[in-house]
Amino acid sequence: MNTAQFTPAGTMTAEDLGRIHLIGVGGVGMSGLARLFLTRGLPVSGSELREWPSLAGLRALGGTIHMSHEASNLDGVDTVVYSSAIPQDHLEMVEARRRGLRVLHRSEALAAAMTGRATVAVAGTHGKTTTTSMVTMVLQQAGTDPSFVIGGEISEVGSGAHHGTGEYFVVEADESDRSFLIYRPYVSIITNIEADHLNTYGDLANLEATFAEFARLTDPEGFIITCADDPGGRRLAETLRAEGRRVWTYGESADADLKLSGMASSAQGVRYLAEIEGRSLGEIRLPVPGRHMGLNSASAVLATYLLGLPVAAAEAALGAFPGVRRRFERKGVADGVLVYDEYAYHPTSMTLALQTLREVAGEGRLIVVFQPYRLYRTRDLQAEIAAALGIADELVLLEVFGPGELRQPGEGSAALLSVVPLPADRKVFVEAWDDVPAEVARRARPGDVVVTMGAPPISLMGDQLLDALLARSGDAAAIGTGVDPDGAAATAG
Questions:
Q1: Has 481 been annotated as catalytic?
Q2: pLDDT band for position 492 (50/70/90)?
Q3: Which of 125, 129, 218, 351 is flagged as catalytic?
Q4: Tell me: the pLDDT tens digits for 216-271?
Q5: Of 158, 264, 362, 478, whose CB neighbour count within 10 A is largest?
Q6: Topology at the third CATH level for domain 3-111
Q7: How many CB atoms lie under 10 A from the CB of residue 26?
Q8: Which fold has domain 117-319?
Q9: pTM for the model
C-alpha cells in the first residue's frame, strides 16, 4: 500500500470524527480501536460477519454491532474506518464514498486519538504485541494511567485498549502496510527487523529503510530503543547514531546500553540480571518462559529508566506479567493434554515459540495445529516455516488463511506439508476445519502439549480441541486451568 494514501498525524482529535463506524470491527486491531473510542464516550458502530469474542464487550460498552455488511449500516455515520484487510470495493467503502463521508484507515483514526499525548510506539517484525503490553503494564504500575491500543489483549486486563487520563499513549505500530509512518512518537521501540511483508517492501533492504524512516519521525526530545542482539536492530542503531539521533540499545551483547546477563528460561518463566551505565538494576523475573520474552521485557525496562520512572515499577509489573492472549495463551487441560494458543506465523517467532513450548512439554510430545497466514508469506518463506514446524513431534496442518489472495498452482499448505521434515505418519493436512478436533484427539496422549498456531481464525480452535479431548475421556473434571499435568503451575497465561 502506498503511504501517500494516509494522512500524517496532525491536529485532528477523536472527537472530531463524530459518529464512527468500523468495517470488520471484530478483528483484534479494529475491536481495540472501537473499545478506545467507546471508553472515550464516542458513538461507535461496526459491521462483522462472524461472532468474534470481542464483540460482546463492545456491545456492553454501548457499541452497535451489525452482523452483516449493508449500506444502511452507515445511516447517521460521520466517519468510516477500515483496515488494510478491507478491499476498496467493499460495499460499505463504496457507499461511504458515495455519501461523501470521511473515510480513514485504522492508523489514521488511531493517530487522531493520540493527538495531545506523548506516544510510545512499539514496532518490529516480532514481539510487538507482547512488548506493547509490557510497556503498558509498567506505565500502569508507575501510576501514569496511560491510554493504549494493542494488537492483542493483556490476559489480566482482558482488553487491548483503554482511554487513560495520563500523558502517555502506548500503541503497537504496524509496519505491514507502511501505515506506521503517519505516527509521530515521543518514544520509538523497534524490537527487531527481519524479512516479512515482502509483498509490500520487495526486499529486506527496503524494509530496513522504512523502519529507519519510522524511527526518524521520533520527537528530537524523545528517544529510540532497539535490540543490540538483532542484526537489523543493530544496523538501524548504527545508522541513526551516525545521524546524531538519540538511540539506546538492550540485549546480551557486550556493547548494549542495557546489558542483560545470566538469562535463564524454564517452564516456570525467565529471569536475567540488568545493568545500565555501570549501575545494576537487579534481577528481572517474568512468569512466562522464553528468551525472546526476556528481550521484550528488557525494552520496557529501558524505556522506564529513560522516562525517569521508578525501575521498581518495571520489576513489579514484569514479575506479575500474565501474558497476552494468543501469545502462549494457556487454554486448559483435558484428559491429561495441555492446550495452548499462539499467534506466531513468521518462521523466527514460530521457532522461538515452539522451542519454548518444548520446554513446557518436558517428557511429553509437542503437537502443532498450524494455519499458515497469507499465501505470499507461505510461498516466500516456505523452507523456513517448514524448518520451524519440524521442531514439533506431530503436525496437523490447515489450509492457508489468505483473505483476498488468489492461490496459484503449487501454492498452499499441500506444498508446505511436503517439505516439513517430519515422517509421513507424523504430519497430516486436514482440509475441513470440523475434522481437526477429532484428528488431534486421535493423536494426542496424556502428557502431550498441543498448540494451535498461526492465522487469527485458529484462535477459535482451542476450545473445540478441549471439548474433543474431554469427550474421549468421558470425565467432566478433566479440564483444568490451574496445574499442568506434571504438577508445574500454569504460567504462560
A1: no
A2: very low
A3: 129
A4: 999 999 999 999 999 999 999 999 999 999 999 999 999 999 999 999 988 778 99
A5: 478
A6: Rossmann fold (3.40.50)
A7: 22
A8: UDP-N-acetylmuramoyl-L-alanine:D-glutamate ligase (3.40.1190)
A9: 0.68
